[in-house]
User: Fold these one by one.
Assistant:
Number 1:
Amino acid sequence: MTGFFHGTATAMITPFKGDEVDFESFGRMIEYQIAGGTDVLVILGTTGEPATMTEEEKDAVMRFSVEKVNGRAKVVFGSGANSTKKAIEASKKAEALGADGLLVVTPYYNKCTQNGIYEYYSAIAQSVTIPIIAYNVPPRTGVNILPATAERLASIPNIAGIKEACGNMEQICETMRRIRGKIDLYSGDDNLNLPILAIGGEGLISVVSNLLPAEVKQVYTLVKEGKLKEANEIQDKLLPVIDACFIEVNPIPVKYGCEALGLGGGIPRAPLTELEDAHKKVMQDALDAFGAKKVAR
């Protein structure tokens, strides 16, 4: 299926205050995203640290998100796992709690075959009726959705697209060639947002848009309008902030960036650690150079 969404999605952080989810800050972030023109909120993806959260916390975050957004943007919940059974259970729960769609990462650590990847997504897709975006991020999972497998996934009725974060543009171009017109391609790598849009990507699933949602949306809009010079100018300006967002493992830097902008965020949960002092300066300098403004509370 195609057309689940066109535009920008933010891979949302989950803000913490001490040992608890900080729902006050989370609500502020949701409003900031909607005001910035974000089309989709991706919640409990990798950037949201679901691996460190209890099932009760994840349920509470999903319920809060659906209620707070109230139809003003699409809400997509992460529901992937390294067990097909667990991924099915999580997907069914997300659908029952009001998700518009699912972001399902490849099964990690087990390192299944390409056929195993297909069977994993096929089983999950048969368990729900809402659209599914497959998430390919081999640096984290050790599993890569190869272009031929992406083409197979495109035959599954409620697979809506692939979020590509493999980092290999040659592979991404071949995947696009094989899935074009069948399912949509979404950029999952902020450094490659512009070239992925240029080859026909339908949207961006962005980390840096936690900080600068309106500017990320501008890049998308300008590319779709054929204004590549203007899009490149904004992307060039964004690149130092993007680099700062990945100076340590995601979401450590972007959580600090959210704090620096007054959105809140807190410290990531162990085994992730607080951003190192030298890297805090890098992030702050990048935000200052961009001209990012603090969010009024």
Note: The chain is about 45% helix and 15% strand.
Number 2:
Amino acid sequence: MHAAENSPLTRKLMAFVALSAKEVDVLDQLHQRRRSFVAGRDMVHQGQVAQAAYILAAGWVCSYKLQPDGTRQIIDFQIPGDFLGLRSVLLRTSDHSFEPIVDILAAEVPKRDLLDAFSQTPRLATAVLWAASRDEAMVVEHLVRLGRRDADQRVAHFLLELASRLALVGMGTKAGFACPLTQYHLADALGLSSVHVNRVLRKLRQENMVTFKNGQVRFINIDALIKLADFDPAYLDQTGPLLA
């Protein structure tokens, strides 16, 4: 059996197109250079001239930008099945950093191998382009989340988006999901203080919608949470098992 056959990336791409045996074989080749990275130490730093991308196989990563005053802004969180640094490979220089939140396993994909894979299997390249386009759509939605939604809606929308993404790779359900993020991570990503995030999570728990403790998100009333967040998963371009 190919190592990549049941990988999170393969599961995600299969939501877009049924991959052939040849395409799975090419994906398998892209998974060969597996590396471990420890939590808290950047695997790619802002301004790095990158010649490789990574396929996240296990663990969670945050992508962030450094500000001139030394502070950072979290852009997004990457989960298994996501490409890391794909844009920086094509644009030559990374415009943001990637930091593992927990110890992770990732496959290093040199630029030449990536371009060769796309040349061999154009349909696989199209599937990866779909995944990249989906990531871009999420960034747009995040801008709306920061600019137009109140704190309760931001937190609710964020948790539902994570659940949908994780469901696509077999790591989340309507019941909930394992989540290593802290309230500080949520605060940074959502433009809130950690105190405000704590207050919102307490309110959502008291209203019997969702709990988030001990690294577990548990949905109590997911329909009410969807209504609160006005969550429409159309931008994720999936009819995954969570919200179908």
Note: Residues 22 and 121 are 8 Å apart (CA to CA).
